[in-house]
What does this fold into?
Amino acid sequence: MSANPPAQRDIVRRPDARAKVTGKAVYAADLIRSSMLFASIVESPHPFARVRHVDAADARAMDGVEAVLTAADIPGRNQIGVIQKDQPAIVSDWVRHPGDCVALVAADSPDLAHRAAQAVRVDYEVLEPQLDTLKNLERNHPLIHPERDQRDNLCSRHKIRRGDMEAGWREADVVVEADLETGAQEHMYLEPMACLVTPEPDGRLRVEGSMQCPYYVQAAVASVTGLPFSKVRVIQGTTGGGFGGKEDTPSEFFSRCALLAQAVDRPVKLFLDREQDVRLTSKRHPTRMHYRVGAKQDGTLTAIEARIVGDAGAYATLTPVVMYRSTVHACGPYRVPNACVDTFGVYTNRVPSGAFRGFGAPQACFGIETMMDRVATALQLDPCEVRLRNALRPGDEAVTSHALPSCDGLEDTIRVARERSGWSQNWHPPGAGSTGRYRDGMGMATIHYGNSLGSPGWYLDASGAHLQVNRDGSVALAIGHTELGQGVLTVLPLIVAQALGVTREHVTMRPVDTDNLPDCGPTVASRATIMSGNAILDAAGQLLDRLRPLGAKLLDGEEDELQIEEGKLYIRSDPENFMTWEELAEEAFLANVHLAAVGWWVAPPSTFDSETGVGTCYFQYAYATHVARVQVDTWTGKVRVEKFTCVHDVGRAIYPAGIEGQVEGGVSQGVGYALLEDLRENPSGHILTHNFSTYILPSAMEAVPDVETVCLEYPAPHGPLGVRSVGEPAIIPVASAVACAIANAIGLPVDRIPCTAERLRLAWRSAAGEGGEIEA
Amino acid sequence: MILVSFEVNGTAVRVEVEPQDTLLDVLRQSLGLLGSKEGCAEGECGACTVLLDGLPVTACLVLAAKVEGCSVTTIEGVASMWKGEEGALHPVQEAFIDVGAVQCGYCIPGMIVSAVSLLERDPSPDEKTLRQALAGNFCRCTGYNKIFEAVRRAANRMGGDL
It folds into this structure.
């Protein structure tokens, strides 16, 4: 284990950076083809309605309009649901959220396509929108999916039952209870959704675009067009951010674009403008939670009851797996002898909630970490001590009644965060710090994070890598995982270099293309480095099995004694007498050695019992503790986040600058979630905050001035070279740490995020009374 | 149609534009300069930032018909603003690469134009000036700290003493 700040190590320059700083990187909106048409979507203005009739005659008659498609025109299956088959590409009967797609248009300019979409006349029977998750859970409530066998609006249901709750409450010296709420969060990746679909002369469809998951897109396009997978080629373009927002949502829009391209047999481009992108694409699940926690006098937890209700929106999309993650992470990384966890995903007439970095864990983290602080407050204990007292140690059973594999780093994240943040010197009991207008506070949040897809996603938890050594020694790497900005293009060549014994300059990555490799699963769940990295190790092993005997022979030594590193090979006893990797490659070529290999890695299976929640849940975990220092302006309600200390057990830091980039970005996005990003809608559920002017992101002015990233390196059992996930762990504790710090500063509970200035000021005024805020 | 003559990255151009066309439309569609990005079309995100007569503007809010006689610099022209070796990048571009300030990259053309413009006006900006100069350019990936670091590093290299 080491705790070196990554900044002290070598900086690795990203191979994609030069194209990005010169403006040469090609994003989907930059793609141009001759005879290209432009797509537009006919959006339902109503959140909930029955489609009686679609009249496209006027639109079809417009000069320059090449196609108007309705559900009846779909040659394949009108279905794009990724987990549950509840989502049509084009609505034929019910519209279930504002903007639901009723028809598609292709025309020879974006403006004409837009005007033609408005000329499509749709006769609706308008219904009352169902927007309240708790009411929608009640029986005999209007059904959003009446076609399902189920007579309620429940989309997903998970539970954990552990120990004896009665005994847990009896043993408790204190019981704290709270109703908590988390808001929706919009991804606001800087590049809006876009794609280009080109029918190729050989009858295939070529789909290029901004996406996380080319294999999801391939499946959706094949489904709606009726083509076999082999006739759908998906190529990822440079992608301007994803954060989960380009996980399954591109499947919706790209499959619609593919329908148009297929119908007109011409290239069709689809791009959403910002307002459409916000209106029509997924959000982080808003939740309502109830927590009840019992603890002994010394802070030892005796029981946790948690109920989390997530708003699935109109279609299931990823809700069942998001809520699975909320369930598994609902009690934090703590020893909880008795627990009762219930989570519900509920259909409403909103745009579907979906994947967003953290995937259900940030909500659960806000729940459990808020309660950990309240236990500490009730018992007059230091919340850091309460976390340490309960943190899982090796061999302890997690709430799902299995020991977490290799959790030695967890307690250390708390200890190191305490030390680096100056917690012992600066923390004060809630509300007991500075008085007057500005109040200082510190908050801590500790997490575990199940790496990759876990039990419900095991069937697609495998990935490949194709390595090809050319006769000049250069190495081409193809993988199935996408670069979204997170650094896959940088970290994976480092793994290749280490595995083969070459330099990273030897390695070039091929664009992600479904023609290269079989389905490698999605680029989500902080899994790309782990999954592709392991597949690379497998491929590199195959190549070395063929190359090492030749190398030993050429150097006139024993294979056991052969060393290959940094592009040189030599017999250990005689390092001066080396040959270069390039020479080896040329000799291997001339000897007809097979110089390509496909590696494949399958995640170890994990389990989850749907009745009890007993299971291993994920094959390995990452651990982190964040500490936030804030200053609250009690006059305005504005919170300034001054410092973040972020301690992560990353297993092995292969690309430390990339880890820092992930952590600093995660802090910013988490601070936005905690304080600023307030998705507003009108009473019928239409989103009002659909651009940067109304949906407020952290800008350079709100950047946290001091973000310290500390990497602990406890090797993981299954990550390549010991790697654990970091992309999502970087954001999961952030909002909770900020909320805990605010509560600590002002001595009032924070029950809801985002804790906007308006809400905070109102809470402060109502607690302090009129004029109470001006004591100074 | 309106005929507009102006200068882009040092080259004189003459284009026909519609009254409603923005400078961003003309750069991207008529002139094939695709480095400037559209992120919001309302002048908020900063991804389309270009220099108009030396000052940063969001090209999505500038009507193309208004740039008659003006000089425009886009991300494609930034490198040649610096008197470096042939083909060399601007120190701001170099610094963004060196410190790892680039992730998804979509905000970066606008961010770099804003940063270059700042250093033209103030070779050694203080922290507040730096933040204010970049406040109109959203980045969703980096949390801005590495971007600030890159601009400080570029300022040092360019001779300011930030």
